[in-house]
Amino acid sequence: MPRPLIHLLAIVAGAALPFGAAAKETPAPGAAAQARTEARSDAAASPLVSTEWLEKNLDAKNLRIVEVSVEPGVFERGHIPGAQNVVWHTDLVETVSRDIAGPEKFTALARRLGVDRDTTVVLYGDNNNWFAAWGAWVLAQYGLVDNVKLLDGGRKKWEAEKRPLDTRNAEVAASTFAAPAPSTTFRARFGDVLAVAKRERDEQILDIRSPDEFSGKVIAPPGVQELAIRAGHIPGSVNVPWAKAVNADGTLKSPAELKALYAAAGIDGSKPIITSCRIGERSSHSWFVLTRVLGYPARNYDGSWTEYGNAVGVPVVNLAGTVWGGK
Amino acid sequence: MSGPIAERAAPLPRFRAPAGLAGRAPLPWALSLAVALGLAGAALWLSGQPGGSRLALALTFGALFGFVLQRARFCFYCQWRDFLVEGDPRGLLGILAALAAGLAGYAVVLGAWMPDPSGTRLPPDAHIGPVGPVLVLAGAVFGAGMAVSGSCISAHLYRLGEGSPTAPFALLGTGLGFVLGFATWNPLYLASVSEAPVVWLPRHLGYAGSLALGLALLAALAWPLLRRLRALPRAETGERRIEAGFGSVFAGRWPVWLGGLAVGAIGTLAYLRIGPLGVTAEIGGRARQAAGSFGLLPARLEGLDTFRGCATAVRDAVLTPNGLFVGGLVLASFAAALAAGQFRPARPRPGHVARGLLGGALLGWGAMTGLGCSVGTLLSGIMAGALSGWVFGIAMFAGAGATLWLGRRTGLLA
């Protein structure tokens, strides 16, 4: 396809997405969800911003653009002008204990980024915004929820549309943000998941790993060393791989398509949902789709299979019958 | 530095471009042009693929690097041997020129990427490795491999394009050496590498301090070489006058210092856009893949993938930036050698095979254990301000010198 035509299509698609999405909307289970999806036509209230909108608003006051990419060196060799870099494996976590960044560390990070409670934060990254969504999940725990948005299509779409990149560092004024104790609204812990697995609580678990991990055929994807001792999944969970929520160009599917995708697995937002994967990072992407785009009540279980699959004495479903260490 | 020498330089190249094109040897020229156009076409095609601009750029930089290496005979071992045996310091001055240009270039890039180098973070994917006895051993073994096989890995790659009878065996040996390196990695890592400090000079000295120290060290190394250069008889330093002529670019041998400056510039630009220069990531990665499929690989390579350097992570794509870089290097060197009349394929004799395989295995083991070779660890490391680059370099030249001395004493090496 000639490049101008691709550009034209991309622009038309970008412009039409919010309106088309709102038009195709079917009645949502909750009023809040209804309000949120309708608001998608308004960049100020939508959880997603388009590449086109971002390019027009690069100099907007009170906007901070933050890249969270997996691949090192990607940010430095060219980022969206004005963007700042956040390193997922050191900035957003504690590096000794397994936890999200504590209030002190998060306060320092938010101040460095110049992020306050009323700042609009646009997150983006490589790999279809995988770690950018994880960043949004960490920010949400410190009360930065509605003003945090993902760039629809992430780096991939921005680059494909040949929009400008910059290699210089943005200089922003530090904020005075002070992180409270992290909220538990969006985070599920081992006890929560175990209660669902034992049917003591009526919630749904959405496992977004690959079908082979879910069935227990493999314990982890190839090349991954952090394993669990058991294969399979948490009883009662359903499997919808995270990337199914994404179009080929990296954008999220329309809310109607997303609803249909999760409804096919029995998830319609009528019950609280827990998202889970191997280490809780890919599942943040699905968490973002469920809570922010569809308005479903969802929490992310960051312990995920590397916690649950290593726990002693918990119920497990292992369809493939893989035995750790050999049959 | 070669100004006065160049003035009285050897005769002008006999080559005349139009005559050469039309009458002298049209076939090599046509073939050379076809390879160059093929490389350009491949880069153009790649740049149009989704996510292909990085691959296209890697191919282009590889081709430029290969062209420069071939034209300037930028070969670490040959330059060292020229100095030790013939007393000719010009090649080593070329290597120092490359390091000086790259040090300055990297400082400019790194200063923009990481305004404050004093934190705990290292610049992205710069080749800054652990410094300890294992690095010294790796450098020395790599140096021995250079002496035995006749050059380092990057030079074998460009010599492949010149039709060298040793290069194919040396590169095969390098692959085997990598497998040996994987086999010995875990004990070395647990005994020493895991404890070895990763020293990035700008963190301790700032960019200005690190650059000043680096340039001062290079100047100190260059000083005696320049004195030696002045003492050489004029005829011996008969370096051609540099002209902007067609023939001097494509047919005559470039002065090595010019090649050095070009290598420094390519190193900086490659780091800015793709990653540090290195030629062993692809060889190592493919060797790891092959060894893995034959069950010759330890189940885990402890800590290996957490280090910077020529990463040998197993490839899941057919085309990788480093693979294209190496491919571009070999093909551009082939085109350059053809055009210059320096493509001289020779039938390998048993000596070529034996020296290639043995020397290559030493090169491979050293490059795997040292997390890179004379390009990835020495050049890209020193340019980035890594202590590991200096340590590997000193050990490498010592290892090559000692092996050469021993080889000449026993009559095994020339």
Structure characterization notes:
The complex is a heterodimer of chains A (327) and B (414). Chain A folds into 3 domains: 45 residues, no CATH class; 115 residues, Oxidized Rhodanese, domain 1, CATH 3.40.250.10; 119 residues, 3-Layer(aba) Sandwich (Oxidized Rhodanese, domain 1), CATH 3.40.250. Helices cover 33% and strands 11% of the residues of chain A. Chain A has 11 helices and 10 strands. Chain A is globular. Chain B is an all-alpha fold and 414 residues long. Chain B has one domain. Helix content of chain B is 68%, strand content 0%. Classes of the chains: A alpha/beta (327), B mainly alpha (414). Chains A and B meet through α6 of A and loops of B.
Oligomeric assembly: heterodimer
- Which class do the helix and strand fractions of chain A yield? alpha/beta
Sequence stretches where pLDDT stays below 50 over 5 or more residues of chain B = 1-23
- How many beta strands in the DSSP annotation of chain A? 10
DSSP strand tally of chain B? 0
Number of helices of chain B: 17
Report the sheet with the most strands of chain B, covering strand number, pairing sense and barrel closure.
none
The helix/strand order of chain B is HHHHHHHHHHHHHHHHH
Q: What share of the residues of chain A lie within helices?
A: 25-40%
The CATH C-level class name of the largest domain in chain A: Alpha Beta
Distance between the termini of chain A: 51 Å
Task: List segments of chain A where confidence is low: pLDDT < 50 over at least 5 consecutive residues.
Answer: 1-6, 8-42
- Which shape of chain A, going by the Cα principal axes? globular
Q: Give the mean pLDDT of chain A.
A: 86
> Shape of chain B from CA axes?
globular
Gyration radius from CA atoms of chain B, angstroms:
21 Å
User: Helix amount of chain B, in percent?
Assistant: 55-70%
The radius of gyration over CA of chain A amounts to 20 Å
